[in-house]
């Protein structure tokens, strides 16, 4: 425990006064120590993330990241020049949009919540229903969707080719390759791979800093990990707090608005109403929650799981009623908040004119 000077003057203790003072100080130190969690064990190290992977044909370089960032923020690539990738994936809103469900071009209300871009570099499945198999493929998805960006790629590629600034950036990033849908997708994906959260307080505790989290937050971690308690780690697995799988967690839809999720992509009965497990890293920043955006707070999500979901048709076997006390629920929420990494500045780049 760090100690500091409380008063800018000296005091002398004699006899009984000195003894009482010493006991008081020891009591204070003990109280602080009681609030510390136990040290992380070797088994806890599974939660530490390595460097983001990248495919051999699109290794991350500064030039590719710079180009991808410009494309990510450029609304001129949309069908009417008003929305960009960053319109829905806003850095100041946890790389999401803070809305119940997304808003596309011309104010179109979308059917699902906007997932965060954070740590998509580590994913193996993309989109809520997993219909995209790579970050490069995912990058073009919203651009080609009429309700989202409605990009006219012939016009967009002409716009990029007409600007000397963009021509120079593409040449630096992908020398010898044309300005094409493929290089646009590769550049955006290269930028998105830099949106990483792996320096949270929890990460620092796992790495050996016992003071990084509190005893209550550690109790929440135990609830999270215990199959007999929260059972959260059954789906939110290490190291990125996702199994990259699909589960029906009992979300109730409005009448006539059922969403079959993964089942539409892969027609296996168990996948009806199943959606991708999102990462919990930076989850504090990405409310509201679920693919419907119907959980306003982290406590709302905990309460949903505690009651075993709402629509129990085809419910995933991992979802069941939980016997959690109010204190355990509060500790669980406190733990999830330890998964937030320091927010990094993401200024809007100057776009080639």
From TrEMBL:
Keyword Iron: yes
Compartments (UniProt record): Periplasm
Gene3D superfamilies per UniProt: Cytochrome c-like domain
Domain Cytochrome c: 63-164, 215-340
SUPFAM superfamilies, per database record: Cytochrome c
Matching InterPro entries: Cyt_c-like_dom (IPR009056), Cyt_c-like_dom_sf (IPR036909), Cytochrome_c_Peroxidase/MauG (IPR051395), Di-haem_cyt_c_peroxidsae (IPR004852), MauG/Cytc_peroxidase (IPR026259)
Signal peptide: 1-33
Keyword annotations from UniProtKB, A to Z: Heme, Iron, Metal-binding, Oxidoreductase, Periplasm, Signal
Pfam families referenced in this protein's UniProt entry, alphabetically: CCP_MauG
Name of this chain's protein: C-type cytochrome
């Amino acid at each position: 425990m760090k100690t500091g000077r409380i008063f800018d003057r000296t005091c002398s203790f004699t006899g009984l006064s000195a003894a009482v003072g010493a006991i008081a100080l020891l009591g204070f130190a003990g109280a602080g120590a009681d609030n510390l969690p136990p040290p992380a064990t070797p088994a806890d190290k599974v939660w530490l993330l390595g460097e983001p992977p990248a495919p051999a044909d699109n290794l991350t370089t500064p030039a590719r990241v710079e180009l991808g960032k410009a494309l990510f923020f450029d609304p001129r690539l949309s069908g009417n020049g008003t929305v960009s990738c960053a319109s829905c994936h806003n850095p100041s809103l946890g790389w999401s949009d803070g809305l119940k469900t997304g808003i596309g071009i011309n104010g179109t209300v979308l059917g699902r919540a906007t997932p965060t871009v954070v740590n998509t570099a580590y994913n193996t499945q993309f989109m809520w229903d997993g219909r995209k198999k790579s970050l490069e493929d995912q990058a073009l998805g919203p651009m080609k969707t009429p309700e989202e960006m409605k990009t006219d790629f012939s016009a967009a590629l002409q716009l990029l080719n007409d600007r000397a600034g963009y021509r120079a950036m593409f040449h630096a990033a992908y020398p010898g390759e044309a300005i094409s849908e493929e290089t646009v997708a590769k550049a955006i994906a290269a930028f998105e791979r830099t949106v990483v959260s792996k320096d949270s307080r929890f990460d620092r505790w796992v790495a050996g800093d016992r003071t990084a989290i509190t005893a209550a937050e550690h109790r929440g971690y135990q609830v999270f990990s215990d199959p007999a308690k929260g059972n959260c780690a059954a789906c939110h697995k290490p190291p990125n707090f996702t199994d990259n799988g699909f589960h029906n967690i009992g979300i109730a839809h409005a009448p006539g608005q059922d969403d079959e999720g993964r089942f539409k992509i892969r027609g296996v009965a168990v996948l009806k109403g199943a959606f991708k497990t999102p990462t919990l890293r930076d989850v504090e920043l990405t409310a509201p929650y679920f693919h419907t955006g119907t959980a306003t707070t982290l406590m709302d999500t905990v309460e949903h799981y505690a009651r075993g979901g709402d629509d129990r048709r085809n419910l995933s076997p991992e979802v069941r009623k939980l016997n959690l006390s109010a204190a355990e629920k509060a500790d669980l929420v406190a733990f999830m908040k330890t998964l937030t990494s320091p927010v990094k500045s993401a200024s809007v780049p100057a776009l080639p004119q």
